[in-house]
Specification:
single chain; 448 residues; mainly alpha
Length: 448
């Protein structure tokens, strides 16, 4: 069945409701319900329930639940060990200003480059106590962490994102079998959005870029009142005394993360395998060191997993919304309605802008890639357009949606780790992300 412009209604319902009620889960739920009513009213609510069950059974969703939950477990153990506190105390010897605290946050995001989930969670938890010492708003901290998650992952070949994109390049015959990584290297110079976002984040950290809108108000609030987190932020319930474990060492923080990163790289860049190894190593390392008892470590694993439940609920509903978009033909509809006026010089820019809108409204990145790349590749070939710039436009659009949409996976995980309301984070970062979109669009037009 052809739904035409009706396919735009569910994501627009989500955006409008979220702006008015300043929450994420409820608009997502309502948007999904509206979508399934439009798809087949006679089967509602059965079709919604079927989609929810199918989403929970989906292999990708199971992977996300396990990865996010185990990241939560690992980070919770590191916090309980006192490792985060010890690392913070160590860094504070060298961090003497707000600027240096933000610069360390930026550099940590550069160091934890393997996976955007890992970066969003580890960087946020690690740096929030350090930035708190200098009255840096949680919105500013979250913006820095978020800017160094997905954008970095599309600029470095050794990441979970590059693995996925490389496979798509091979599947769509852009490169020969086995040539996915070589193809990904061709994309990197054209990842204009990611380059601009990372540079803007660095300039903000150095105080060389103006504060705008909500971020400016957040920084003023933090400096003048000492209120660091925006309203409706979910703050940690961990007792501060537990964090100050006597004799805690920075290595309790670094060793688990190093093992996590190394295992992820070695085991086929698989974040799930990497975090499983990381949790297992941390379990036995803390137990063997006498740092924590067997029972305390086991309890900590479950407590950390449980701390991710709200984030996972939002992610699950965002995947249901993606199913709505797929069933109603959102991506093909939008592309079909713009390709008639395209020239080869305009193709990368238009593809970037169109897919950025889709990625933002659906909070989908890899899903957009899977749908859009098979459509875009023959379109670029037919117009004799710059294939690498066009494909980089697709990947850049997904990066924008991943770290800009207020209900995307990375935004939710960043808000969880930094204890910052995800709506406030999204709207504080949006002016900077839109500046990056504008500059990237111009660059795509110029270098097409």
């Amino acid at each position: 069945m052809e739904y035409g412009a009706l396919c735009l209604i569910p994501p627009l319902v989500v955006i409008v409701l979220a702006i008015f009620i300043r929450r994420a889960f409820e608009p997502l739920l309502i948007g999904c319900l509206v979508g399934f009513v439009l798809i087949k009213p006679s089967e509602f609510p059965g079709n919604f329930i079927d989609a929810l069950v199918a989403t929970m059974r989906d292999e990708t969703m199971a992977w996300i639940i396990l990865v996010c939950g185990l990241y939560g477990s690992l980070i919770h153990l590191i916090i309980q060990s006192g490792g985060v506190f010890a690392f913070g105390q160590y860094v504070l010897k060298y961090v003497k200003t707000r600027r240096s605290a933000l610069l360390v946050t930026w550099l940590l995001g550069l160091f934890i480059f393997v996976d955007d989930y890992m970066s969003a969670l580890a960087s946020g938890v690690t740096m929030r106590k350090i930035t708190d010492n200098y009255r840096i708003s949680r919105e500013m901290l979250a913006l820095q962490v978020n800017a160094m998650a997905a954008p970095i992952c599309v600029l470095i070949p050794m990441t979970t994102w590059s693995i996925y994109v490389s496979k798509l390049l091979e599947e769509n015959k852009v490169v020969q079998a086995g040539g996915g990584f070589a193809g990904f290297f061709h994309l990197i110079p054209y990842m204009f959005y990611a380059w601009v976002v990372v540079i803007i984040a660095l300039l903000l950290a150095l105080g060389k870029f103006p504060l705008l809108g909500k971020l400016k108000r957040a920084e003023t609030r933090a400096l003048e009142t000492g209120v660091l987190a925006p309203p409706k932020s979910i703050l940690s319930k961990t007792d501060e005394n537990v964090l100050r474990v006597p004799g805690a060492k920075p290595r309790y923080f670094f060793l688990p993360l190093i093992v996590l990163i190394a295992a992820t790289l070695i085991l086929d860049k698989d974040a799930l395998k990497g975090v499983m190894v990381g949790v297992a190593f941390t379990f036995f390392y803390y137990w063997w060191s006498g740092l924590m008892s067997f029972d305390a470590i086991t309890d900590g694993i479950f407590e950390g997993f449980q701390s991710m439940v709200f984030a996972l609920a939002i992610l699950t509903m965002s995947y249901v919304l993606k199913r709505v978009g797929d069933e109603m033909g959102l991506t093909p509809f939008v592309i079909d309605n713009v390709k008639g006026v395209l020239t080869k010089g305009m193709l990368p820019m238009v593809i970037f802008l169109v897919l950025s809108f889709i990625s933002y409204t659906t909070a989908s990145s890899w899903g957009v890639y899977a749908v859009a790349i098979p459509i875009v590749v023959p379109l670029a070939q037919a117009l004799d357009a710059n294939m690498w710039a066009t494909l980089a436009a697709v990947i850049s659009a997904g990066a924008f949606g991943s770290h800009s949409s207020f209900y995307s996976d990375v935004t939710v995980l960043t808000s969880t780790s930094t204890e910052c309301n995800n709506m406030e984070l999204s709207f504080a970062a949006l002016p900077y992300n839109l500046i990056a979109v504008g500059l990237a669009a111009v660059l795509f037009l110029f270098f097409a």
